[in-house]
Amino acid sequence: MPIQPQNLTVSLVLYKTSQSFSPFYNALIKIMPPPYSSHHPPSAADDDGDAIVALHSDILQTHILTRLDGAALTSAASASSRFRRLSREDLLWRRVCSTSWPSTTHPRVQQAISAFPSEHRSFFSDVFPVLDCRSLRCDLNRSSSSSTSELISAVDIHYKDKLLFSKVDSIETKTNWFLGSPFRVDLIDPKDSIPSPIRRTEKYEDWLGHLEENLTVSWIVIDPIKNRAANVSSRQAVKARWQWLSGDIEVEYTTVMGGDGRIGSAEEMVECAVVVSCGEKEEEEGMEMSVREVSMRMLDMEGKHLKGKESMEILGEAMERGKRIRGKKWEGKLRFREYEERRRLRKARKERTENALDMLCIFTGIAILFSFCSFFLFLFLST
């Protein structure tokens, strides 16, 4: 049954909210009766304080704020002290998190979020914006180990806004085996696969672009000791390719991170690569796709896997000091292309240096050989 506030109150609220954020406006008009549309918003000079107060807090919190996503709810909190107070309700942010990332409803994740300073609101502020930590620098050679004893991964894969895969996994980060082994987190056993409703009816070339556009991945890493989190996936794919050996389609979601910062070193910058591999099986309606691999790995500029200790140092810095920015949809791919160009230039410089050293060794060897031959020739002639 629609709410029946006074027309003046409705007009005043519509005026104030539409000036700052349209999602609030859209949520409000959904619960209002049709007559409100015939009223013109009042001028800013009108005394609207009493009218705003007249709209009960339960109406705002139950029928309006619950319709907002996280970004709009953040905007609502900055509109006034009253909205700030109402939008701090943890149930609102819990709904936002569970809607955006279904994996966060897992008991282990909920337990970790409950220890955050403002619970789900703090978690959302850590996870929602795009992570930018290219400028961070880590001392990867220090002997002190990270205080984190566990790393929780909450992963969700969507295809055209439909959930395909959701899983929570945790790994111990203090064991010698983890610290000394290449860092890699796999969520699906190699013998298993996850069926999906995706059917390929296009050519491979067109289908790769289709997956880049419609398959989105969220990989949230949570540090339950320091109460920090970050989404290390680029959300939108940075590249998709066909693996000719296995026949699978591999889609990659990479976030570029700062490494040790030493110019020319392999760890100057690193990539946190989230990879989704999809296999195919022929059906009557087309090629049925299934998810065969969901993994995360840390790679240096030479494509080598970083060890667990180095990876945890970098991930810890990213969660602690990484910038959260509102990036556009295509910016993740652009940053990855810049990183690949940087890798290409580094590889070219390395090849030139190696070629120069090879030539130097060859000329040095020829000079030594010529010297020996000259010496023996001199001895032969002198006798």
Q: How many structural domains in the coordinates?
A: 2
Number of strands: 12
Outline: elongated
Mean pLDDT over the full residue set:
79
Strand fraction: 15-25%
Helix content: 40-55%
Structural classification: alpha+beta
SSE sequence, one letter per element: HHHHHHHHHEEEHEEHEEEEEEHEH
Number of helices: 13
How far apart are the first and last residues' alpha carbons, in Å?
Answer: 120 Å
Low-pLDDT windows of residues? 1-21, 31-51
Cα radius of gyration in angstroms: 29 Å
Characterize the biggest β-sheet.
6 strands, antiparallel
Keywords: Membrane, Transmembrane, Transmembrane helix
Organism: Cucurbita moschata
Transmembrane segments: 356-381
InterPro entries: AT3G44326-like, F-box-like_dom_sf, F-box_dom
Description of the molecule:
The chain is α+β, with helices and mostly antiparallel strands and 383 residues long. The protein has 2 domains: 75 residues, no CATH class; 217 residues, no CATH class. It is built from 13 helices and 12 strands. Strands 4, 5, 8, 9, 10 and 11 form a 6-stranded antiparallel beta sheet that branches. The protein has a 4-stranded antiparallel beta sheet with strand order 3-2-6-7. The protein has a two-stranded antiparallel sheet with strand order 1-12. Helix 7 crosses helix 9. The radius of gyration is 29 Å and the shape is elongated.
